[in-house]
Amino acid sequence: MTGFEITGASAADMEMIRTWADEEGWNPGDSDRFAFAVADPAGFLVGRIDGEPVACISAVRYGSAFGFIGFYIARPAVRGRGYGIRLWQTGMERLDGRLVGLDGVVDQQDNYRKSGFRSAWNNVRYEGAPRVNGAGAGAEGVGVGVEVVDAASLPFGQLAAYDRRFFPASRDAFLSAWTGLPGRTALAAVRDGRIEGLGVIRPCSGASRIGPLYASTPGIAAALLHRLAEHTPDGAVAVDVPDANPAATALMAGLGLAPSFEAARMYTGPAPEVELAGVYGVTSLELG
User: Fold this and answer.
1) Closest C-alpha among 137, 152, 72 to residue 111
2) pLDDT at position 138, please?
3) Considering the entire predicted model, what is its pTM?
4) CA torsion sign, 137 to 141 to 147 to 153?
5) Furthest-apart CA atoms within the chain: distance in Å
């Protein structure tokens, strides 16, 4: 592998990585890279041959015990030549000693199992314009006393504590950027001062992505989804739904959204304990 080196990603590299992910059909958010960079600035790696970038990976550290692998891409011209696996090994070394998660596309899941990962559930992407009166859209209603508000109007510590119920580690810097970047809309459902739902929508090259989508009931999830869809050019959205939450899967089908993509959430050890029943859409397939 003469001439091959691995370096940290620059700001320009982060835009390149986004473009590569788009070419793979993953539909990343237009501004995701700005939130990703603050999650773990050293967590994005690029493999180069004689200075030319040919592969990338993210190996993001959360706290002291959790990590997440994403953006594992080797350019088509160099696949099968060992460059990708070298980058993979470097990324995994960076997360040594931690529980590591990833979202594995179907054709790579056997390779991830060989590296010690085991499937926990599937994240299925549902896309389309939600039906206003679809089955499940208003069966429970948003609930008495629940108000949908701009998430920015709430104390950030309250938002961060709520997110922590559904994610294995604190990620305050990431969450602050993820919910507050220009062009995004973040809404929260609040009852008696308590957060009972949170949703963020962001523009993408394809359907606008919603994630996270947390809610205490399907009615609250539906209300947030409909309100978020109002902030898209054509009403079309995409939500990555854990199939381990049957209520979430039923809601998406009832709203008329159709499955379009699937990835397995995999971990190197037992799946972390989170309130999966409240997760109607994961935040990101790249960073968890």
Assistant:
1) 72
2) 43
3) 0.94
4) negative
5) 66
